[in-house]
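Hey, quick one: can you model this chain's 3D structure?
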Amino acid sequence: MPDKNLKSWIEISADSDFTIHNIPFGIYNDASVRHRACSAIGDYVIDLYELAAKGLIKVDKHVLEQETLNDFIALGKTITNQVRNTLIQLLSDDNSPLKADTAAFGTVFKKQSAVKMLMPVRVGDYTDFYSSIDHATNIGAMIRDPKNALMPNWKHLPVGYHGRASSICVSGHSFHRPKGQQKPADAELPVYGPCKLLDIELETAFVIGKSTELGESVSTANADDYIFGMVLFNDWSARDIQTWEYVPLGPFLAKNFASTISPWIVTLEALEPFRTKGYVQDPKVLPYLEYSGDKNLDIKLDVFLKPKGGEENKICSSNYKYMYWTMEQQLAHHTVNGCNINVGDLMGSGTISGPDPSEYGSMMELTWRGTKPITLKDGTQRKFVNDHDTLIFRGHCEKDGIRLGFGECSATVLPAT
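Sure thing. Here's the predicted structure for all 417 residues.
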């Protein structure tokens, strides 16, 4: 467990996501910087290129001025963890050369409010899993049989599908409501038009930090060596388009129009203190999916809906600890057939729902397919997401006086074109 008494000489609010125990990684730009790798402390981004130029971190500075973190991540955890640990030391030592450097505020340290955060990684391939037992049970009960909500394979393997990497956008973007075919229940033939049942999916995702060759497999025992860190993730879903198209091959147009990623990657090392026990998996899984130790994570997750010109409304509070399948199992299953992975690949958790109705991670569940609308502060109701709504995800971990968070994952829905 890290030292809870460790403090930074930079002033940090008690509820900040970016404490000395976090030190995440991202990419930023501003009026003077095209794109550079950065970290965060309190209200500031930390320009890693400037630190390398001063000789304070031992990384080729040109790796730190790339469009994404891929080349930095590819240096390996020996280097990236060393950079993080050096930052922790520089930011906590009262004799730090940075503390005495008055010019650092403006070059090394820049207000987060004054910069723009960019896509943190170049995502070559994106996979989305379906690993929350409460979510899978709820959806199965709605569209199939409540007594047999889970498909026969669900407790034997982490179900997943390959998604579309090109439409993953960084937090703060907007997108137009998708269009496609839908088949109303009372119609004989499908119709075409804007999605009427636009939904969120409260997810996290993990970023691959180490590549494999075709034919290699990653075991649950060494999976953590291949996981660089985690982000918040909203895998938007067009439920009416999905219902009509998904048989027999699964999601297609209902998923590939937009997904939203938070800009900060929180390292797996920062998250280690928040490990917790997972579900007892019954029936027993096959040997390649077995693992030892506590592999779930206690990450508190909140969803807010903000109508145009209105206030934020908290509509859900869930937790990553409700995942049935762990990241390690997901990665082991993904590669058991020899599928190769690359630095920057993204693996979505699937919608994270808890056992209580207030913990459901999608509008589909929160409103129970639109039969129980949510009433907002302004008196309006939502069955699904309306045009001009902004959906915001936030997540943080807190234990024994140690706190860290992920920042925001937000996007705004525009009318269909």
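One thing worth noting: The first strand starts at residue 26 and ends at 29.
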